[in-house]
Design a protein that fits this description.
The structure holds 2 protein chains of 2 kinds. Chain A is of the alpha+beta class. Chain A has helices at about 5-25, 35-40, 50-60, 85-110; strands at about 30, 65-70, 75-80. In chain B, about 70% of the residues lie in helices and about 0% in strands. The interface between A and B is medium-sized, with 19 and 17 residues.
Chain lengths: ~110, ~325
């Protein structure tokens, strides 16, 4: 019987890196925080609000995203989108993710030989 | 209860640096508003805020760096420095506090005063030591002293001599500092003709030792102090009981006990007024104490000191051979 708490912890570790990639993948067009959250939720990516919102802010500080306040609607909303360097970085990360996937698959196959 | 959202946002932003607060506040307000229906009921608000998790966790996510006072990387090192320093400083401060008060003219010495002075000194010393060590590490780390430079094999420490019974460094250092302290104090007091160990009993003030004798003691006290420091140095250097350490320890014990016994034999050590006082007070009582008046006190004390020296030497010999046996069995 695997220790559930231990398993959950390891799964969180596993997914942590993927969350940045998941967020970036939705930001080719400007999105605001909550809509991004809903979007990821629809695609069954488990991410919590208190992880996503600070993550967006951090990615902006790192230069991957640009933000803009839309004050035209009844409620002001902050929109995030990929910056130029953000686009390039996202492409690199995607490639790396696919490489990792292939590497891991290879490892799993070898292990069953 | 209408201000739950405001209070939540406040609880998050107050944990963030001032520059960030405004922007985070605006963002969170917009995000939370999006998560709520048009005219939210109180229960809706409670649900949404609960789903956001504790404000401190949210704030932690917003903070760019982890906030430690002393980072995990050097924490072990910090503790390993903190422990011996605090112990040494606490003990020394305790002794200094105690003796500084005793040396005041007319201060009575009783158990309560000893304990309270010593404890006070220890606590003060310990608190200061902890503060200063911590401050030192905090400054050193933030100024980049511990940024990982490229590591090379030259930086590997030498193996400790793993055989033999260890001599605790802390004890040795404390002993050395106390030796310096007391030797200094006693010699200073003698040369300044300050009263040594006054017995203030009601009306009488009696100086137990003659001044001439005390002055002649000075070179012996000084020499013994220096030898004690040298022995301490040897113990620190070797750090474990071994033949050379044992021999030095034994030799030192022989020397200091011989000096002490010799001094105790001086006929003019005890002052006449003290002898007379002793005669008056103790002859009426037990036989042993009456010996003080006829110089037997010297003998009594000598035996006591010899026993101490023998025990200490024996302990050293025991530790040395215990280590040797363990080495042979290894």
């Amino acid at each position: 019987m695997p220790d559930n708490e231990l398993l959950q912890g390891l799964i969180t570790e596993l997914r942590r890196g993927a969350l940045t990639l998941a967020a970036l993948s939705c930001l080719s067009k400007p999105r605001y925080g909550y809509s991004l959250l809903q979007s990821l939720d629809e695609k069954r990516i488990r991410i919590e609000a208190n992880t996503l919102y600070p993550l967006l802010r951090r990615l902006e500080t790192q230069g991957l995203l640009i933000s803009d306040w839309d004050t035209t609607e009844s409620r002001p909303r902050k929109y995030y989108a990929l910056s130029e360097s953000g686009r390039e970085l996202y492409a690199e990360l995607k490639k790396e993710w696919r490489n990792m996937g292939r590497e891991m698959e290879r490892l799993f196959e070898e292990e069953t030989e | 209860m209408n201000d739950l959202v405001e209070r939540y946002i406040y609880d998050v932003t107050r944990r963030l640096p001032e520059a960030e607060r405004d922007e985070v506040r605006r963002e969170l307000k917009a995000n939370i508003a999006d998560m709520l229906p048009e005219n939210p009921r109180e229960q809706d608000i409670i649900n949404v805020l609960t789903s956001l998790g504790t404000p401190s966790k949210m704030a932690e996510q917003y903070r760019q760096k982890q906030s430690y006072l002393i980072s995990p990387a050097i924490f072990d090192y910090y503790i390993s420095v903190l422990k011996p320093v605090v112990i040494v400083v606490a003990l020394i401060c305790g002794v200094v506090a105690l003796t500084s008060d005793i040396l005041q003219f007319g201060q009575t010495v009783d158990a309560a005063m000893v304990i309270s002075n010593f404890t006070q000194g220890m606590i003060d010393g310990a608190i200061q030591a902890v503060f200063l060590v911590t401050l030192g590490f905090v400054i050193a780390e933030r100024s980049g002293a511990y940024k990982s430079k490229a590591w090379t094999v030259d930086r590997l420490p030498k193996l400790p001599n793993s055989s033999g019974v260890a001599i605790p460094r802390v004890g040795t250092i404390v002993g050395m500092v106390l030796t310096m302290f007391f030797t200094g104090i006693i010699i200073t007091m003698i040369t300044r003709n300050e009263p040594m160990m006054i017995f203030a009993l009601g009306r009488e003030i009696i100086y137990p030792f003659t001044n001439e004798a005390l002055i002649r003691c000075i070179p012996y006290i000084f020499a013994t102090g220096c030898m004690s420091l040298a022995v301490g140095g040897v113990k620190l250097y070797y750090a474990r009981w071994s033949m050379p350490v044992c021999a030095v320890n034994l030799a030192y014990n022989v020397v200091w006990v011989s000096i002490a016994v010799y001094i105790l034999q001086w006929p003019d050590l005890l002052s006449p007024e003290f002898l007379e006082f002793a005669q008056r007070t103790f002859t009426a009582d037990a036989d042993i104490l009456s010996h003080i008046s006829d110089g037997g006190a010297g003998l009594f004390l000598s035996i006591f000191l010899i026993v101490i020296a023998v025990i200490d030497s024996a302990a050293g010999i025991w530790n040395t051979f215990k280590g040797a046996r363990a080495k042979n069995n290894a």
